[in-house]
Specification:
Elements: E1 3-9, H1 11-17, E2 21-26, H2 33-41, H3 45-50, E3 58-61, E4 64-65, E5 77-81
Parallel strand pairs: 1-5
Antiparallel strand pairs: 1-2, 3-4, 3-5
Length: 87
């Protein structure tokens, strides 16, 4: 059975992408947070722009700050947000 994770987008990332969340069925070759980033960038358009390499972007997996090398697990939650989120 394929792995699924929840994607969440916050603040300006959410505004630019036009969505706050989605369920992603993870292809077998996608094993890390960085792999998910590459997969989302490959959608092109605004996805490639907002998630472009070198852009200021923070990531959290299951509510823990992570780097692109962090491994995925079925049912996990991956969140993307700008470095400074106002309260």
């Amino acid at each position: 059975m394929p792995m699924q994770i929840q994607l969440r987008f916050f603040a300006s990332v959410r505004e630019k992408l036009g969505t706050g969340q989605e369920t992603l069925v993870v292809p077998p070759d996608v094993k890390t947070v960085g792999d998910v980033l590459s997969l989302l960038r490959a959608r092109g358009g605004v996805w490639a722009e907002v998630l472009a390499e070198g852009r200021a972007l923070r990531m959290a997996y299951d509510q823990n700050m992570v780097e692109a090398t962090a491994p995925l697990a079925d049912g996990g939650e991956l969140a993307f947000f700008p470095p400074v989120t106002g309260g």
